[in-house]
Structure formats: C-alpha cells, structure tokens
Design goal:
alpha/beta; 21 helices; about 550 residues; eight-stranded mixed beta barrel; globular; five-stranded antiparallel sheet
C-alpha cells in the first residue's frame, strides 16, 4: 500500500511537518509525545530526550549560566495544564516568555486527553508563535492610544478609559498663550516645553493624558465634591506657576486655565466646555454646571435653527467644491463637496455658523440629503470624482443611507463618489459602519477617513473599515516645511497607507513649499488654497 494511504504514517507525516507545536503529557506533566516543531523551537531537545521529562526540566536548563538556548515557559505551561484538568474542557491561552533570550508570544490550545476506554490520562496541546502579530498589535495600539511626543495616553485612550472605568470627575488643563510660545521660541522648543510639562504632571502620580496640542487632562475616580477638586487644582496651579521652564538660556513661567466637570454623562465634553468657559471669562478655573447656560445663547441657537429650516424650504443650501489635484502632475482629479448656506440676502454663510446647531435640532440629515442631491446632480455629466463628508449620525440614519443609495444609482455617480467619514466624532458601532461601507462599495463607491493624524486618530479604524483614502489632517500639513516631527508623522502615515493599499490626500496645502514637501514625501493628492479655492460649479 502507498505510504500516504496508511493512516498511522500519514498522521506521522502531518505531525512531523506541521509548523505548529503538538504535544501530549501525562497527569504529572511529563511529555508522552512531542513533534519536531516543539522540540526544535521551544524545548531545544531531540524527541528521545523530551519523552518522560516535564517543562520544569527544560526551565532548569534555562537557568544554567552556560546555557542561553532554552525557554522559560515552564511555570506558565504547568499552570495552564492544571487549569485545563480542573475545568475539564478545551481552553485557549496566550503565553509569554523567552526563547533564546528573545521575547515570544504563543497561542496555546489545550484539552484533556483520554485513552480509548475514556480514562483521563493527561493533556494534549498545540501552540503557534504569534509574536509578530502581537508586536504589531502593540505598535498599532501605541500609535492609536498614545501621544507620540510625550508618550502620554491621548484623547482616544481617555475616552476608552472613561467608557470602561467610569471616573467621577475630569479636569482639563489648557496652556495659556501656548501659540505665542511656539511663535516666539519655535515649535521645537514648544515641543520641549510640552514634554517637560508631561514629566511635571507625572511627578505628582496623576494618570495624565495629552488630549490636544496644548491640553492635558486628569481623571478622578473617588467621589470628591467639585469645590474640593477646585481647591486641590488651585493648589496644583500655584505649585505649577512657581516652576521654571528652560528654553536654551531663557527661563519662562507657564500658566494654565482649568476646567472641571463632575457629571455622569459626556464627562470629557463637559470638561471641555468648562475649560473654554475659563478661557472666555479669563479666570483660572471654571466648573461645569448643568444649569449655567446663558439665555442669549439659547436665543441665538433658536434663530439659527429657524434660518436653517427656511433655507431648506427655499433651496438656499448650496455646495461649493474644492479641487483635489494629483500631487505628481498638478492635474485636478477630484473635488471635495463643501456645504454652504445662503441667507435671505444671498450672502454665503460658512458651515461653522450653522452645522453644529443643525445637528442639535435634527436638521442635519436634511442638509446631508440636500448635499447628496446637489453634488450628484452636479457631477452626473462630469468625468471627475467627488467626495462628500458623512457623519456617524448620517451612517446610522437608515433614511439617509437609503436616499444616498437611491441618488447615486439614479445619477450614475456611484463609481466616482467618495464618502469621507468624520473619524474625529468617534466610531463606536462598527456593525452599522461596516454594513454601510459594504453596501456602497458594492455599488462602486469609495471610502476616505477625514482629518487623520492628530487628536482622535485611530489606526485600528483604518484597518477595520477597509478605507480607500486617508486624508492627512491639515494641522500636520501646514507646518510640514518647518516642523521635522510633523514631517515624520506624515511620512509614517504615507508608509502605513502604502502598505494597506490606500491613497493619501494632504489638506491645507496653502503654499508652494508645502506642496513641494508633500510631493517629495509621496502624498498622492493635494488639497488647499494653493491648488484651488472652493467655488461653485455648474
């Protein structure tokens, strides 16, 4: 009979050549069987030496001063064997140790082992080296959740901690006049100040976050009254104001404005409101109060909401389009759609003055539908591609999604439309987002992540959402000529995009030097006042 058809020999061949580690042990943890992979890659011994020995035998060899080849997984292996025998069911473990003085992560599957009569005789297991995968995940996590300048956890990590750990209070510290420090001493010295401030906070054992360019934050988990927190922060700021920071031969004082929020919902947002209130009122510390809204602010919001409704009824929601050019050729390849509103005198109102209020008054979806309709009809007879910004609320709104699909099919623009997802809003429900992406991609549309590179940036989103374009945040691009660190970050994003087959777009390209810099780095497309201002298209 041919060798491969004999079951025993066939199983031996599989075991011998399988890259995964396979083994069986008795109830005392002694090896009954070990394939070539575990012998060569973990135990560093031949099969004859392995049989009858336990993991502690090989761990003992590791401790010998003349031997640096073996492993130190012994105790972990023994513990997981015991757990499997105690639970009496198949289990999966992630085990970490050293092999040849190198860190190694193993994904280990173990199960109880019975003989042909059903008697328990030990454990059986398999292991796979997942070190590369784990290290990549750790690297992505560091990029996603930690500030690259100070190594402090970032805003995204803070939001995650708030969600998972339920802190009671948040304090945000905003550096007063930090822009002037950057302008006067240069961004390199400004970065040094930021790193020194981070170290200062850590000296007080605070779990400190850097949540924005000039903002740091801390969380409280104990139920402390807001006025006591304010008193503590006053003392902290007094100590900080006595601190001297050195820039070359100069010494300077740094001052903060602080905002405190002690609320159950939207903790970070409300701390943000408090610190902005402190800046606005020019006081050191402000506490967020639920009932502190100014009547005048409400009246303005109501007036703007009324204007939006009227504009929708009278077709005064319009679109401007900003060119996006091929960085290599300078040729216009696509346009970004930018919403505008006309007032009763046909004066153009920028989105900053009405979009945030539209979201709060449930008018935003109507604006989105109007933009979709206008843009698709503008480009239905054109050859260029065009992009439209979508919020997470748009994607979660079934009626809006239905209108999008109907419109791009009717205007035959599906193959040329790009949907820019506003990642800065936070992407929480992946099922809904992925479902939307799957739907529109099946029609030929493409996906871009907008404003990527600072603040909320999350590389995990890029990997999970299978994006076609990464739009690099303008705060990085506008300083790229004179700020080497910004250039390095942009180069990293471009390299990352190339590896996942995504194209990159630089925003805020306002002058020729910036254009030449991003072109040299290899950014695929350019957008900004240098390459073209937003305008109406016919």
């Amino acid at each position: 009979m041919d060798l491969i058809l004999q079951p025993d020999n066939f199983l031996k061949l599989i075991s011998k050549h399988l890259p995964d580690m396979l083994w069986a042990k008795d109830l005392e943890g002694r090896y009954l069987y070990a394939n070539d992979s575990i012998c060569n890659n973990l135990l560093m011994a031949n099969p004859e030496e392995v049989i009858g020995k336990d993991d502690f035998y090989f761990t003992a060899k590791q401790k010998h001063p003349d031997n640096i080849k073996e492993h130190n997984f012994g105790e972990l292996c023994f513990k997981s064997d015991c757990i499997v025998l105690e639970q009496m069911k198949p289990m999966i473990f992630e085990e970490y140790g050293n092999i040849k003085n190198e860190p190694v992560y193993l994904e280990v599957h173990k199960a109880p082992l019975h003989d042909t009569n059903g008697k328990l005789i030990g454990t059986i297991g398999s292991g796979r080296n997942i070190t590369t995968q784990i290290l990549l995940e750790k690297k992505i996590e560091k990029l996603a959740y930690y500030d690259q300048l100070t190594s402090l956890p970032n805003r995204q990590k803070m939001l995650l901690d708030i969600s998972e750990k339920n802190p009671t209070s948040c304090v945000i510290f905003n550096i007063d006049e930090f822009k002037e420090i950057n302008d006067f001493f240069g961004t390199e010295n400004g970065d040094k100040i930021l790193k020194d401030i981070a170290k200062w906070f850590l000296n007080f054992d605070f779990e400190t976050y850097r949540i924005d360019g000039d903002e740091f934050a801390i969380l409280y988990y104990d139920d402390i009254a807001a006025d006591i927190i304010k008193h503590n922060i006053e003392n902290l700021l007094s100590l900080f104001e006595d601190e001297l920071f050195h820039i070359e031969d100069e010494t300077i004082h740094i001052r903060f404005s602080a905002g405190i929020a002690k609320v159950k919902n939207n903790l970070l947002t409300k701390a943000d409101i408090a610190v902005h209130l402190a800046k606005e009122k020019k006081i050191k510390i402000a506490i967020y109060e639920e009932d502190a809204n100014i009547e005048q602010k409400y009246k303005r919001n109501i007036a703007v909401a009324r204007s939006i409704r009227e504009a929708l009824l009278e077709n005064r929601i319009i679109c401007f389009y900003q060119p996006i050019v091929d960085s290599r050729t300078g040729k216009i390849i696509k346009y970004e759609t930018l919403v505008r509103m006309l007032d009763e005198k046909n004066q153009v109102i920028p989105p900053l003055e009405f979009l945030s209020i539209a979201k709060k008054t449930k008018l935003y979806s109507h604006i989105t539908k109007e933009v979709i309709h206008n843009a698709c009809n503008t480009f239905k007879d054109k050859k260029e591609s065009f992009s439209i910004n979508l919020s997470i609320d748009d994607i979660k709104d079934a009626n809006t999604v239905q209108e999008i699909i109907k419109t791009i099919i009717k205007t035959n623009t599906a193959s040329r439309i790009i949907f820019e997802i506003l990642e800065s809003e936070g992407i929480e429900n992946y099922d809904e987002v992925v479902n939307f992406i799957t739907q529109i991609k099946s029609l030929g549309a493409k996906i871009a992540i907008d404003d990527f590179g600072t603040g909320y940036s999350n590389f995990e989103h890029i990997l999970k959402l299978n994006v076609d374009f990464i739009k690099i945040d303008g705060s990085l691009i506008k300083n790229i000529v004179h700020n080497e660190k910004h250039r390095i970050i942009v180069e990293t994003i471009v390299d990352f995009a190339n590896k996942i087959n995504a194209k990159t777009i630089a925003e805020f390209v306002s002058e020729e030097d910036i254009y030449n810099a991003i072109k040299e780095i290899g950014v695929d497309f350019s957008q900004g006042y240098f390459t073209g201002k937003p305008c109406e298209l016919k």
